[in-house]
């Protein structure tokens, strides 16, 4: 950990930190406690990019999803629906192809 006392920063200014920044972040110590951390511009931009929230996926309403479903061949019996659901559930338990 690179560290510089606040008094040294006050006395020498930015020069007290510039030499140490080449080796990574510099911790500023005030009253024997860490007060802040100084990082390079490149590191700061990297941290900002990493902290940016991921974009939300587009929202799709239920009606759009229902309209995308293929038209059915008419009413189905309870047994037909149960059989289709059972077939789909068995696919959930299978590992994806290629694993």
UniProtKB/TrEMBL annotation:
Coiled-coil stretches noted in the UniProt entry, renumbered to this chain: none
Biased composition (Basic and acidic residues): 75-99
InterPro entries xrefs: YefM-like_sf
Region (Disordered) residue spans: 70-99
TM annotation in the entry: none
Protein family: Belongs to the phD/YefM antitoxin family.
Protein name as annotated: Antitoxin
Gene source species: Sphaerotilus microaerophilus
């Amino acid at each position: 950990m690179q560290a510089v006392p606040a008094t040294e920063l006050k006395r020498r200014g930015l020069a007290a930190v510039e030499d140490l920044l080449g080796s990574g972040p510099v911790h500023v110590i005030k009253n024997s406690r860490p007060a802040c951390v100084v990082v390079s511009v490149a590191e700061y931009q990297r941290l900002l990019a990493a902290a940016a929230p991921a974009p939300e996926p587009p929202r799709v309403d239920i009606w759009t999803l229902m309209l995308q479903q293929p038209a059915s061949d008419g009413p189905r019996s309870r047994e037909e629906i149960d059989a289709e659901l059972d077939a789909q559930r068995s696919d959930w338990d299978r590992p994806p192809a290629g694993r």
